[in-house]
Design brief:
alpha/beta, Rossmann fold, Arc Repressor Mutant, subunit A, globular, DNA damage, hydrolase
Length: about 625
């Protein structure tokens, strides 16, 4: 009788195949549940190791693991990385020739693969299900499981048919994973994908390596160029709300000498594929894209994500910034927003033919996103609170860094709350802002709000500033939407305390403060990177700034001598990647090269001690890496 694999055996395979010394936080508990045969729903942040929760069990169990993945690019990357580690894996998709797919299916029936990746459209076909059942499929992993939810930002109708296909597959064990799912989305995932309630593992949504920043649009092109300048020679993504915006911004950036490529659904498929491939394989490409780009992009060294326009929702924002810093090293995010963005989103919601329930939900989600943009408290606290998670101030966002002017907001808050109460809570920020500055709009006059005592009591602030104050009060949980009536605003207990003058309140002004010495810090880092003679005082200044500003990745925690070795290792990795026509990160992630540069291993045994290098990788690339180290040490 075969014994069930345990965590000790899983840890051995983790070390031998994947090159990791131990599990990441939260992985062991999930892996144990998978090995026990339980159905699983795992919500884990990007970079926390979701894929390992089904890839590792696939190597410990006798059956076949089927992975349903929404994007061909994601399948291709994961299969290639598994092959690099010596794991027999394949993908069935439309980019393969008919002959290739037939050969893969024949090999599956002979038991030659441990994992097979399949698109949802192909998976639900009767012939595919029959073949997979005959091939011994006994574990179904559903990646990006939030795509099943009609309330989600990446809804894929074909995902809803997955649950109906389980009987035809012989009722396999299910492991569904995603990084983005609030309460309603989790409920729908469980309803649609699982025959019975699964075990749930909801990890922290926090990505502490991401610096969060938001700015009102002032001179958006200059704001974006400043972000790119802080990451010269590094990869980044800039999201725009429209195809026209993508094309225009790409032209502007290209004229500035920036290697920028457009990506949107209006481009021919072969052009989109070429641009995505260029972005994945090179280290200095900036992709300017609509939301058509990103899901499933497993490029670990994206050093910044910028939103040129307001994202679609707080879930979309979280998902999109999550494409930065997947290697766990510091990365930068910036979101630009303005009144025009907010009004556009409001119009899109109202003009949509969606059901009233969906419109109410969309309005609530928009308010949560605006509250994040306008919050006077730690961005990360506000973001995590939207997912039901409490946290302390992070020290790694523009609010915690003291980049915004603050003022005593008690009187301003009292005026907003008075306006809410006198209008029965039925009006949103724009209407209340006009009321407070004394602007008698058609709506104001229609409701006789120009006769209220609060009409015109707030002329000390502009319309934009009053909108901001309103959203700050929402972010601080001083006002909220009624649970029974989402179209009505009401005061919370904390808000009433402010209204009565029993509590203090600090609010945030409109414009961010200058970044101080950030330019000097960046200059020091660039000198280290280029090998210039920067003294150690400059280097210490740069290192101390790492908790407040994202570092240039090649200088992270390295001496000048180590940085030069890191640069040489990157050059060798790029050469190997070009020879194999693979992205550089498939060879080694930057974090692995940083560790090689720091330790300077002399032989394969020392190389194997480095996190992320297993026997397969050491056998394939160890000699080349060790040769670079040896040359560097002799120089």
């Amino acid at each position: 009788m075969q014994t069930k694999p345990d965590l000790d055996e899983a840890r051995r395979v983790l070390q031998e195949v994947f090159g990791f010394a131990d599990f990441r936080p939260g992985q062991a508990e999930i892996l144990q549940a998978v090995l026990d045969g339980d159905d699983i729903l795992a919500i884990m942040p990007t970079g926390a190791g979701k894929s390992l929760c089904y890839q590792l069990p696939a190597l410990l169990r006798p059956g076949l693991t089927v992975v349903v993945s929404p994007l061909i690019a994601l399948m291709r990357d994961q299969v290639e990385q598994l092959k690099q580690r010596g794991v027999p894996a394949a993908a069935l998709n439309s980019t393969n020739s008919g002959q290739d797919n037939a050969m893969i299916e024949a090999a599956l029936l002979k038991g030659r693969y441990r994992l097979v990746y399949v698109a949802p459209e192909r998976f639900v076909r009767a012939d595919t299900l029959s073949m997979l059942r005959r091939a011994g499929a006994d574990l179904l992993a559903i990646d990006e499981a939030h795509c099943v939810s009609q309330w989600g930002h990446d809804f894929r109708p074909e995902y809803r048919a997955l649950g109906e296909s389980l009987v035809a597959l012989g009722r396999p064990q299910i492991v569904a994973v995603t990084a983005t799912a609030d309460g309603p989305t989790r409920a729908e995932i469980m309803e649609r994908l699982f025959p019975a309630e699964p075990r749930q593992f909801i990890r922290s949504f926090d990505r502490p390596n991401l610096r969060l920043a938001m700015q009102r649009k002032h001179k958006p092109v200059q704001q974006i160029l400043a972000m790119i300048a802080r990451h010269k020679g590094e990869s980044g993504i800039i999201y725009c709300a429209s195809r026209k915006g993508v094309e225009k911004l790409t032209e502007i950036l290209s004229a500035q000498g920036i290697f920028a490529l457009p990506y949107h659904a209006g481009l021919a498929p072969e052009i989109r594929a070429a641009h995505q491939d260029m972005f994945v394989r090179h280290e200095n490409v900036v992709i300017v894209a609509t939301i058509a780009f990103g899901m499933g992009i497993d490029k670990p060294d994206v050093r910044f994500v910028c939103h040129a326009d307001l994202p679609g929702s707080i879930e979309a924002y979280y998902q999109e910034i999550g494409r930065a810093g997947r290697d766990g090293l510091p990365a930068d995010t910036l979101t630009l927003f303005g009144e025009a963005d907010i009004r556009l989103r409001e119009r899109q919601i109202e003009d949509n033919d969606a059901a009233p329930e969906r419109k109410r939900l969309d309005r609530r989600k928009l308010q949560e996103l605006i509250a994040l943009c306008e919050t006077p408290r730690c961005r990360r606290q506000t973001l995590l609170a939207a997912f039901g998670e409490q946290s302390e101030p992070c020290g790694n966002c523009d609010i915690c860094e003291g980049r915004w002017p603050l003022f005593d907001g008690v009187v301003a808050a009292q005026k907003v709350m008075s306006a809410i109460l006198r209008t029965s809570g039925r009006f949103f920020s724009g209407h209340l802002a006009h009321l407070l500055i004394g602007h008698a709009t058609e709506a104001i006059k229609r409701h006789s709000h120009d006769l209220l005592p609060t009409f015109g009591v707030g002329r000390e602030f502009t319309l934009s500033e009053w909108r901001s104050i309103f959203h700050q009060l929402h972010a601080l949980n001083l006002i909220e939407q009624d649970e029974e009536d989402r179209d009505r605003w009401c005061l919370t207990q904390g808000g009433r305390a402010v209204l009565r003058g029993e509590a203090e309140l600090t609010l945030r002004g409109e414009m961010a403060l200058p970044t101080g010495r950030s330019a000097d810090i960046r200059k020091s880092l660039r000198e280290i990177e280029s090998g210039a003679e920067a003294d150690y005082a400059d280097r210490d200044l740069a290192q101390k700034a790492f908790t407040r500003e994202p570092p240039q990745i090649s200088s992270a925690d390295l001496t000048i001598h180590e940085t030069r070795l890191f640069v040489a290792l990157k050059a060798e990795r790029l050469s190997l990647a070009k020879a194999q026509k693979q992205p550089p990160y498939v060879i080694f992630h930057d974090a692995v090269l940083v560790e090689i540069a720091r330790r300077a291993p002399r032989d394969e045994a020392q190389l194997l001690e480095i996190h992320g290098i297993g026997p397969a990788k050491a056998a394939r690339y160890g000699e080349a890496m060790l040769a670079v180290v040896a040359r560097h040490e002799q120089a």
